[in-house]
Every structure is written in C-alpha cells, then in structure tokens.
Design brief:
- By secondary structure, the protein is an all-alpha fold.
- The protein is built from six helices and no strands.
- The protein has two domains: 93 residues, no CATH class; 40 residues.
- Helix 2 packs across helix 3 and helix 3 runs antiparallel to helix 4.
C-alpha cells in the first residue's frame, strides 16, 4: 500500500477508530460477571505495558529529555481524563451495552472540536461544522427507541 505521507494521519485515524470499536466489544465480553473497575484496571495495565514496549521498540526513549514541565503536566492530565473515560465508559457498557453507549461516547468528537476552538484557537470550516452537526443528529437518532 503506497500512502502519501500527507495522508498518513487518515490511515492512523481509521486504525484508531477500528481499535476503539474493538475495545468496546472485547470489554463487554470480558466484563460478563466481572467488576467494571477491575476490568478497567486490568485493561490499563495491559495497555500501559503494550505502549511502553512499543515506544521502546521504536526508540522513543531518546526523546525523554525533550519533555518540559508543561508537556508533562498536559500529558498527565490527558492520562487522567483517559482513565476517567475508561472507568465511566466500561461501567456504562456493563450496565447498558455497547449499542447504547458507543453512540453517546462519540459525543466526545463534537465536544473535542468545540474545546479545540475555545482552548487551542483551531478554526474548523463550515463543512466541518456541518459534519459535527450531523454527528450530533446521529447520536440523537441512535438513542431513540
């Protein structure tokens, strides 16, 4: 597969979406008769180990010295937010199932865009905002009976 470097982000984004979908499915199967917090803890340990091994295998450790205080603080905040997302998400999936929870979880997409506009100064185009609107409509429609 010959992918131009300018579109590599798209390939990674699609792979991330596929993997994120698998998290919900495997998580739901794995939580049958298991405490969701324990399932989240096990998932976190496995994920941390996997990511550390991956980072070391590609030589990322050489960049540790380039991390400054603000970067470390931001990364820690991202880790806490991600951990809370997993805790809340796994509890919701255990109680209601993937089909109900996954669409609501995707509200993170429009919320992330709004926060990026407010906090990071990003400026989505009109068509981007239309897409965000469609996501909101889609989330609403998937919650109807």
């Amino acid at each position: 597969m010959n992918i131009a470097s300018g579109s590599m982000w798209l390939m990674y984004a699609v792979l991330a979406a596929v993997c994120a979908a698998l998290v919900s499915i495997f998580g739901k199967v794995g939580m049958k008769d298991v405490n969701s917090d324990m399932a989240t803890a096990v998932r976190s340990v496995v994920q941390a180990g996997f990511v550390v091994i991956f980072a070391m295998s590609i030589g990322a450790a050489r960049h540790l010295g380039s991390l400054h205080r603000w970067a470390v603080a931001s990364i820690i905040c991202a880790g806490v937010a991600g951990g809370l997302s997993w805790i809340f998400g796994f509890r919701a999936i255990q109680l209601a199932g993937v089909a109900k929870v996954a669409p609501i979880d995707k509200l993170s997409m429009p919320l992330a865009v709004v926060l990026a506009v407010i906090l990071l100064g990003e400026r989505p185009s009109g068509i981007n905002w239309a897409g965000i609107g469609l996501i909101l409509v889609g989330v609403y429609l998937t919650t109807l009976k």
